[in-house]
Amino acid sequence: MEVSKELLDKIKKIKFFVMDVDGTLTNGKVFYSKNGEELKIFSIRDGMGIELLRRGGIEIGIITSEHSPIVEARANKLKIKNLILGSRNKKKDLNDLLNQLPFDSSETAFIGDDVNDIEVMKFVGLSACPSDSNKNVKEIADYICSKPGGEGAVREFAELILINQNKSIILPENW
After folding, report:
1. If DSSP codes are grouped into helix, strand and coil, which group holds residue 38?
2. Band (175; pLDDT cuts 50, 70, 90)
3. Which of 9, 24, 82, 116 could bond 20 through an S-S bridge, CB–CB 3.0 to 4.6 Å?
4. 3-class state of residue 29 by DSSP
């Protein structure tokens, strides 16, 4: 895929990849059992995209407004240590996190889908959104994925970064 020089310049700087969850890592739907148990669906392909980023030397983070043990379990499964649950100000929370890490906002990519992601998307060096995102989010995103949330958008954005940083999107035989 061909990208503009402006987008390529932003991609080349990325060292930290941060995601929203609902509508980005998931399809935005929540299922409840008759006992009130909440269920979310995550894409294994998105998970592999996260692993490829990690192997490409890019740090991973999640910032979500939810207080969900499901998200915590998924972050643990994907070995994501930079996890912020219950965020009411994603820009501030990301800035606070960046103050603890060796990256700045220009080296950070963020993918989100709804209006509560707009300010953090404006703050980072590179922003993206799934194809089924809110129209206001699409208007400010640097990149709009061809895939919807929970259906490979995170993987698509991850591969865009890795390919344009000349890093592998194929794992070695014995990974």
Report:
1. strand
2. low
3. 24
4. coil
Check the CA dihedral 82-122-70-43 and report its sign: negative
How far, in Å, CA of 132 to CA of 138, rounded?
9
| 0.90 exceeded by pTM | yes
- The percentage of the chain sitting over the pLDDT mark of 70, rounded to a whole number, equals 98
- H/E element holding 132? none
Rg from Cα positions in the chain: 15
**How many alpha carbons fall within 13 Å on the CB side of residue 123?**
20
Domains and CATH numbers, the chain: 5-164 (3.40.50.1000)
What distance in Å separates the CA atoms of residue 42 and residue 118, rounded to the nearest whole number? 23
Residue 5 DSSP SS3 = helix
| pLDDT-based confidence at residue 37 (cuts at 50, 70, 90) | confident
The CA distance from 51 to 162, in Å, is 11
